Amino acid sequence: MSASIASRRKLVLGNWKMNGSLAANASLLEALKPVCTGAVAQVGVAAPFPYLSQVQLALAGSDILWGAQDVSAQASGAFTGEVSAAMLAEFGCRFVLVGHSERRSLHAETSEQVAAKATAAQGAGLTPVVCVGESLAEREAGQTLAVIEAQLAPVLALGAQAVAGMVIAYEPVWAIGTGRTASPEQAQEVHAAIRAQLAALGVPQVQVLYGGSVKSSNAASLFAMADIDGGLVGGAALDAKDFAGIVEAAGQAA
Ligand code: 13P
What we know:
- By secondary structure, the chain is α/β, with parallel strands linked by helices.
- The chain has one domain (about 10-254): Alpha-Beta Barrel (TIM Barrel).
- The protein has helices spanning about 5, 20-35, 50-60, 85-90, 100-105, 110-125, 135-140, 145-155, 160-165, 185-200, 220-225, 240-254; strands at about 10-15, 40-45, 65-70, 95-100, 125-130, 165-170, 210, 230-235.
- It has an eight-stranded parallel barrel with strand order 1-2-3-4-5-6-7-8, surrounded by five helices.
- The longest helix has 18 residues, at about 185-200.
- The two termini are about 15 Å apart.
- Mean pLDDT is about 95; it is low at about 1-5.
């Protein structure tokens, strides 16, 4: 993921969300390893906390990165149920999602907390994947770009050096798990706005991923857009064939 600093290599991350089992994870990873070895695109999976150790062992020596879906902004102490960035880093975790819309909506995470989590992640050497996205009501009210700008503001305020080591993921809430993908043009419009903000900060090379009902059937048209550097994939990341198709599409768009 450190490649994000210098390049906009295509990147496909699977977000397993709260899915999986020891057996299902083992067969999914075994199926993905040959597909992702030597792939043009960089590939990673974000697994639930209890399975990180299994994923670490299963992916040892492979090109597939692995990460977590959340991290505490705190270093240690009386925070029951939380997991620190240092704990994740200690056994080889490379990246962590922060500010996924499901965390923002179900756990009332604010953009300031998301920025604090990104800082904690970087402090332990993890790459934060900062997720932003508008709701359907916000899109219909014409507020999409303003919402994205507001969500990114506390993160961009961390400065160019910090942001250069992050990945941004644009995931419109209305497209997540709904089968309703943003059109490539709708996604590109937002990605271009995010890219402009990154450029203004002096870090135009930061990877910006699209997420929301990405499938092997629509990945190529999304990844062909100028400012879309890959995907953050939910449901289709649980299906080895579909995920492999997305990785392949990313490679062809590179
Ligand atoms: P789906 O691909 O299932 O729409 O989920 C997207 C997502 O939330 C990835 O983080």
